Amino acid sequence: MSSSLIGRAWLWVSEKPKIEHLVSQGRLTRRVVDRFIAGRDLEDAVKVIKDLNGRGIGGILDYLGEGVNDPPGAEAAYDAYLAAIKRISETGIDTTVSLKLTQLGLEFDKGACIDHLRKLAAEAEAMGARLEIDIEQSRYVDDTLEVFRLMHADHPTLRLALQSYLRRTPADLETMSDLRPRIRLVKGAYSEPVDIAFYKRSEIDAQYRFLTDWLFENGTDPAIATHDGVLIDHARKLASKQPSGNKSFEIQMLYGIRRDLQEELARTGYRMRVYVPYGSAWYPYLMRRIAERPANLRFFLRALLRN
Ligand SMILES: Cc1cc2nc3c(=O)[nH]c(=O)nc-3n(C[C@H](O)[C@H](O)[C@H](O)COP(=O)(O)OP(=O)(O)OC[C@H]3O[C@@H](n4cnc5c(N)ncnc54)[C@H](O)[C@@H]3O)c2cc1C
Q: Are residues 170 and 298 in the same domain?
C-alpha cells in the first residue's frame, strides 16, 4: 500500500468514535501528544510563543476543537478565543489567532457563528491582534467562503486558509479576486473523495505552485503554509522579484515539525510564523499529524502498544 493510501486509511479509521475513545482513554504516552500540542492551557501556548518570539518567529494561537454541535460548546470556544486575544494584548507577544468556524457553531447556527466571529474580530482589532480562519472538510467550504466575504468588508486583515488538494480552489480564488484576499495556502489535511480532491502528491504540489503564483499576483501578503522545501523555494523565487523581497510573504509551519527549517528561514530574514495548538480536544488534530507521515504512525502505534 502506498504511504498516501495508508494515510487516508488512517484518517478514516481515526474518525471512528470507538477509536477516539480507545486512544483518549488509554494512557497514550505524553511524548506523542507533547510533540505536536503546546499543552492544555492558554498559558502553555503563551510560553511556547514567547520562546518562538525570542528566536525571531511569530506565533499562530489555535484553541483545539472542531465540529461543535451545541450552543454551549460554541460559547465556550468563543470565550476561549476572547481570553486568548486579551492575553495577547497583556503580554505583547507576536501572534495571530486562528479559529475554525465549526468551533463557533457553523454546523448548526450560521448566524450565531457570524456573530461570534464579528465580536472576536472587533475585539482583536481593538487590541491590535489579527485573526485567521482555518479551512476544514470540503462540506464546509461554501459556507466558509461566504462568511469570509461577509467579514472582509469590515475586517480586511482577516486571513483565510485554502487547500491545494481541492480541485475547486483555483475557481474559488478567482471569485475572490476583487478582494485581493489574504490567504494561507495549505495542501489539505482531511480525507476527501477523489472526485473532490487530488491525492497524487504530484497533482497537489502542481496546484500548490499554481496557487502560489496566483497569490503573489492577485492576493495580499500571501502565507505559504507548508514544510515542503521545494514549494517554499518556489515562493522564495517569486518573492525575490518583488520590491519588498523576503518580506513580501510569510512562511507558516506547525509546532513540532521542521524546527530546523523554521529557525533557518527566520535567521535568513524570512517572516516565519508557527501554528501553536493548545487545549484538551487534541485527538482529531493529532490524528491528522500522524496520518501525514508513515514514520509518525509507526511511532504512535509503538507508543500505544507500550501502554
Ligand atoms: C501553519 C499551518 C496551518 C495549517 N492549516 C490548515 C488548515 O486550515 N486546513 C487544512 O486542511 N490543513 C491545514 N494545515 C495542514 C496542511 O494541510 C498539511 O496537512 C500539512 O502542512 C502537511 O503538509 P505539507 O505541506 O507540510 O507537505 P508534506 O508533503 O506532507 O510534507 C513535507 C515535509 O514536511 C515534513 N512533515 C509534514 N508533515 C509532517 C508531520 N505530520 N510530521 C512530521 N513531519 C512532517 C516532512 O519532512 C515532509 O517530508 C496547516 C499547515 C500549516 C503548516
A: no
